[in-house]
Amino acid sequence: MTQEHLTHVDARGEARMVDVSAKEVTVRTATATGFVVTTEHVVNLLRGEGVPKGDALAVARIAGIQAAKRTPDLVPLCHPVAIHGVVVDLEVTDAGVGITATVRTADRTGVEMEALTCVAAAGLALVDMVKAVDRGATITDVRVEEKSGGRSGTWRRA
């Protein structure tokens, strides 16, 4: 399905929240990913004794889950939806930490923004946890990988 206009802007060009009341309630899932680039030293700490502030991966995971639930508070035109499940996977690699978040609901609108917010917040929490050891840690490539449910069905990044 291709959108030829912006749905969150009215005919006068003013922001509006889309009315989704006529949409069908369906199971909807979205998966987003991102990456925190950090130093070899931080990677070794994450794989071993941990960073000085504590369990960075646990903090990042909880931050992501909490952020998914609070997305409408952070993204002005995002609908509040009942979040039925959030899974945050963190994979320590030689270059940093890969973040994958999957969010699930049964509602009238999708959860792509919740998945993106989850990944971004998990990345921010991770940067906060490692900044004493690596001030240059960077969050990259935050993006939706897949969504399913609703009228438009399934979409996957090519």
UniProtKB/TrEMBL annotation:
Catalyzes the conversion of (8S)-3',8-cyclo-7,8-dihydroguanosine 5'-triphosphate to cyclic pyranopterin monophosphate (cPMP). Substrate binds at residues 77-79, 113-114. The active site is at 128. This is Cyclic pyranopterin monophosphate synthase. It comes from Cellulomonas hominis. It is an enzyme of class 4 (lyase). One of its GO terms (biological process) is Mo-molybdopterin cofactor biosynthetic process. The gene is moaC. Keywords: Lyase, Molybdenum cofactor biosynthesis. Residues 17-150 form the Molybdopterin cofactor biosynthesis C (MoaC) domain.
